[in-house]
Amino acid sequence: MAGYSSTSPGAWRANTGKTLRYRILGAILALFLLIFTIRQFQAHSPRHYTLSNQQLSEDLLQKFPQKRKNVAVASTFGYHFDVYMTVAWTLQRVMKEGKVQVYTPGPFYFDFQRIIDSYNLYDGTYKDYNTLVQDVTGVSDEGGIDLIVLGTCEVDMRHWHEKLLEAWDARDAAHKFQIVCIVHNVRDEAWQPMIQEWSRRDAIRLLPISQHVGKTFMKKFEDIARSTDLSIKSAGYEYIPIDAHIPIIDIPDLPDLPATNRLFSNAVIQGSFDSSRRDYDRIFADLNRSLHIEPESWGYLPLGDGPSFVQDTSIDRPPFKLHLVGSGWLNIPTELKELIVFHTNLNYTDFYQLMSGMDACIPAFLAADDNNFKYQASSSIAMCMETNVPILAVRELREAYGHIDDDKITINRPAVMSEFQAIRALRTGDASSFLASDPSSSGITLGSHPRIRQAVEDFMRDGWVHTKDGFDSCKRRTWKENERVITKILQDRA
Ligand SMILES: *[C@@H]1O[C@H](CO)[C@@H](O)[C@H](O)[C@H]1NC(C)=O
Ligand SMILES: *[C@@H]1O[C@H](CO)[C@@H](O)[C@H](O)[C@H]1NC(C)=O
User: Fold this and answer.
1) CATH says 266-468 is which class?
2) Strand partners, 177
3) What is the pLDDT of residues 135-177, one digit of tens each?
């Protein structure tokens, strides 16, 4: 606010109080000053509060020159190719000159190459990841690689840190390269001490797949920045730029499901079958409980006195199915055998096909753990958005994953409802038994709390069906933001 303090409004009035003309002229001047001050303020303040500098509009960005022209997208790790190849896709869309090359361990799993080729995500060259250092060290006619995007920095830095740092120091001042670290988990700390030397050289920036991971890293770097250890304090941690790039590709042939007369009947939990990452046990117990109390609302009937349930064939409404999509093995209760459908090791083509028929995604994050809200980004959230499946999300999840924070694509589950209380209410169109219940036996029903009642009523009114148009508009906004971030990186802007 330097412009304002050097021209105190009081001092100015003392000199120009004489005629109306001066006053008008003065007012105009003051207005200009004020506008100038506000602009200055806007241009400088947001970086401290948001990950990316929102004030730099796309139009403005187009006016700056592209500084990085020879980009390597590289990884030693066999996974997360869907993440870094989406960055390669964005790079190729926004680069006005230069080239991108991909360095990988080999063919992508689950037939992802077919997706890249048939949707035209990337048409550059692929190289063995073992040739990266050689290409960075060697001087080519274009002046060498000047930007290196690492697909999983937690793994890739541990492999390449020393060699790349050596290569960086060996270059002259005019030919230094930048590292863009795609990071996945704030709590994976083994590689993090390596950030220090890159930060000291102002040669690193982070690119997580969701805003919340970036915010947690930013907080962490601010804490580190005030260290009493001079070698850490001097590395300038608080100036490491952090943005987010959301790994969502454009799947052209997603169906436009009818918006009316559908019964909520297919929910999906997507991700590796790992009970330490997802709340399968609680989820199964909840569904089992509800199935025993009100089997007909799920489209089932108890079979004799045993623990089994069978489809109720007397109605022509589809029964509810819970789809588990991923890899590995899970034990499921006998009672749920008819409800649960496993889909393991699908290739991407079949995965997209299956996902696009789902009514909702259940994130199923562990209730007693905030990992996926603060430290790690679940790729499942991006995949559900990518395939147009609405996410059954509590408010905290929407706040963490900014790209799905939109009523057009999210089902807003009040946290007071469990996933299956919410789905049952949506399936039957009736939340009255939920509101009349008193799950903690406190003598106070849920519905007697005015804001809980309001939230549940809003939830029921908003419904669960979301249109393809809604998803398309949210995805377009995400792609634009991805483009803005990558443009900024190519221009060396924080
Ligand atoms: C399912 O629920 C019923 C009724 O509450 C209970 O008796 C049964 O033990 C539950 N099954 C499992 C596997 O938890
Ligand atoms: C994907 O897997 C299915 C089933 O295994 C197979 O029929 C299909 O050809 C595969 N798709 C591609 C594109 O390879």
Assistant:
1) alpha beta
2) none
3) 999 866 556 999 999 999 999 999 999 999 999 999 999 999 9
The ligand that comes nearest to the alpha carbon of residue 336 is 1
The DSSP bridge pattern shows strands 300-302 and 309-311 to be antiparallel
User: Is the minimum distance from the CB of 349 to ligand 2 under 6 angstroms?
Assistant: yes
Task: Confirm or reject: Cβ of 111 under 6 Å from ligand 2.
Answer: yes
Domain boundaries in the chain?
A: 65-249+478-491, 266-468
Give nearest CA residue, ligand 2 atom 14. Answer: 111
Q: Is the pTM of this model over 0.85?
A: yes
| Distance from C-alpha of 145 to C-alpha of 102, rounded to nearest angstrom | 12
Give the CATH fold of the 65-249+478-491 domain: Rossmann fold (3.40.50)
* Cβ 47 under 6 angstroms from ligand 1: no
Cα angle, residue 265 at apex, residues 264 and 269 outer, rounded to 5° = 105
Euclidean distance between CA atoms 484 and 480, whole angstroms: 6
DSSP output for 34-68: HHHHHHHHHHHSGGGTSSS-TTS-HHHHHTSPP--
pLDDT digits (tens, 9 = 90+) for 113-125: 999 999 999 999 9
Residue in this structure with the two tokens 């430290």, named with its chain if needed: 375
Question: What does the alpha-carbon distance between residue 390 and residue 475 come to, in Å, rounded to a whole number?
Answer: 13
Give the contacts of 297 (CB within 8 A, at least 6 positions apart).
290, 424, 427, 428
Q: In whole angstroms, what separates CA 302 from the centre of its chain?
A: 41
Ligand 1 centre and the CA of 281: distance in Å?
A: 12
DSSP string, 333-378: -GGGTTTEEEEES--HHHHHHHHTT-SEE---B-TT--HHHHTB--
Q: Would you state the torsion angle of the CA atoms of residues 137, 139, 143, 145, taken in this order, to the nearest 10 degrees?
A: -30
Question: 408, exposed or middle or buried, with CB in 10 Å at 0-12, 13-18, 19+?
Answer: middle
Say if 65-249+478-491 and 266-468 have the same CATH topology.
yes
- Spatial separation of the C-alpha atoms in residues 224 and 237, rounded to whole Å: 7
DSSP conformational letter for 299: T
What is the layout of strands, in order, in the sheet containing 70-74? Answer: 125-128, 99-104, 70-74, 147-150, 178-181, 204-206
The answer for residues whose C-beta is within 8 angstroms of residue 106's C-beta and 6 or more apart is 78, 128
* Phi then psi dihedrals of residue 205, to 5 deg: -145, 155
d(CA 92, CA 87) in angstroms, rounded, equals: 9
